[in-house]
Each structure stands twice: as C-alpha cells, then as structure tokens.
Amino acid sequence: MKRVYVNESWCLGCHLCEYYCAFAATRERDMSRALKDRCIFPGIRIEQQGPISFAVSCRHCSEPLCVKSCISGAMTRQNGVISIDREKCVGCYTCILICPYGAIYPSEKGAVQKCELCLERETGIPACVSGCPNGAIVFEERDPE
Length: 145
Fold this sequence. Notes:
alpha+beta; Alpha-Beta Plaits; 2 domains; 8 strands
C-alpha cells in the first residue's frame, strides 16, 4: 500500500504541506479565499527539533492502536487506510492519547482529524505531496522494514 513518507534532510520547514492539506479539505477552488483569515487544521504537521524539520502524519499502521482504542467505532481501517467517521466520533480523544506518532489532532469541527491520504482527490496523490516545493514528501510503496 502506498503511504506518505518524509525525507527530513530535504524538508525546509516551510509549512506549505499544512496549507495544501487544509486547502484540500475545504474542497474550494481558490486557496487564498478558502484559507484567508482562518486558523488551519491540517492532517499533517511540521515539527522542528534544532535545525531538523520533519512532517508528522498518520502512518496508517497495520495494527493501529487508535482503531483498537476507539470507544465509538468511529475509527476504522479499510484497504490499509485508517479513516474517521466524524458522525460517530464522540470527541473522547483516546486516539490522540494513544497514537505513538502524535499524528491525530483535535478538529475545528469537534471530532478528531488525521491524514486520510486525500483519497477523494482526482489525482490520487495527497495534497501535501503535490504541494511540497522541495519534494521532501513522497507518496510511494516501500518494503516493510
């Protein structure tokens, strides 16, 4: 299964992936209109430790603790992708607490959010990948390590 991977040595820390992710979620045509004067809630986040910048996003684990711990059944794993049913989510944040990668975040809409690989995009490529100016974020299949 294809997943989002980040090459930390190429990451500029520009945060454009966050904006492209938030923009993709709006389903609008114009990024400046969609995001102007708004606090964004992307499914990917840039973290920095010293001179190193890196993106944190859902790894779509093969044995996801978030899905196992979800008390409402809002989190599911189908075809390797972990998704959230926002209608079922009760906002207990157990998934946020249990995710070992810190890849699940509170949402502006009361539920939680995370990377869902932009499955609804026509291109089939996550917005963060296509928007990364340095090619630090890729969407590819790799052999398990």
